[in-house]
Amino acid sequence: MHNPFDAAERAVFRRLATPDRIQRFLDRELAYNKEPDGATCRSPRRVLRDRTAHCMEGALFGAAALRMLGHPPLLLDLEAERDDDHVLALYRVRGHWGAIAKSNFSGLRYREPVYRTLRELAMSYFEHYYNLRKEKTLRRYSRPVNLKRFDGIGWMTAEKDVWAIPEHLCVISHRPLVPARVVAGLGRVDERLFAAGLLGRVV
């Protein structure tokens, strides 16, 4: 793969030598982007320059950083009801899935590569995925999307917003994670988990 980043950008990526280090960079060095919904969809180059990212932008950056390590640049979309979707950058180690993510909720971020299937990985987010009304909202997950399909628009370094990627995630099929017959009986999130999820939240 041709590396499209300049020398300064490559120096940053060289420091991100493991998935865990990529996640720490997302958490510690990038502010959470609280611009109005749909305002931006920055490429990884712009994320580096602006030092800010929301969920989608963080997933794109994570996928690019994983690609620099030799992983395919994969995204997975988590689909919710009465809540925002959430996007993960996927990676696989010895046949097990892990994820990197940027989120304003503390429980929706990194996952170690210990999950045998994508359903197992997606299910690990269920109890931590809730809205401010304390409803558990996660319902479906997508198949992995390899961002190589968007190399033609230069998704890693584009100066314009890369809306084609979230638009694609919105139209692909999603598999049910929670049986419809049990949704009505779901309980509310307990107070301690709710408070933990909001730890460090940017308002």
Question: What do these coordinates show?
Answer:
The protein has 8 helices and 9 strands. By secondary structure, it is an alpha+beta fold. The chain has one domain: C8orf32 fold (Roll), CATH 3.10.620. Helix 3 (44-50) links the parallel strand 1 (31-32) and strand 2. The model has no long low-confidence stretch (mean pLDDT 96).
Keywords:
about 200 residues; C8orf32 fold; seven-stranded antiparallel sheet; two-stranded parallel sheet; 8 helices; about 35% helix; about 20% strand
Helix-strand string: HHEHEHEEEEHEEHEHH
User: Kindly, what is the distance between the CA atoms of the first and last residues, rounded to a whole number of angstroms?
Assistant: 39 Å
Low-confidence stretches: none
Helix content: 25-40%
Count of helix runs: 8
Class based on secondary structure composition and strand pairing: alpha+beta
Q: How does the overall form come out from the CA principal axes?
A: globular
CATH class: Alpha Beta
CATH names the topology as C8orf32 fold
CATH architecture: Roll
Number of domain modules: 1
In terms of DSSP E residues, the strand content is 15-25%
Indicate the radius of gyration in whole angstroms: 16 Å
Described by strand count, sense and barrel closure, the largest sheet is: 7 strands, antiparallel
Q: Please state the average pLDDT score.
A: 96
Report the strand count.
Answer: 9
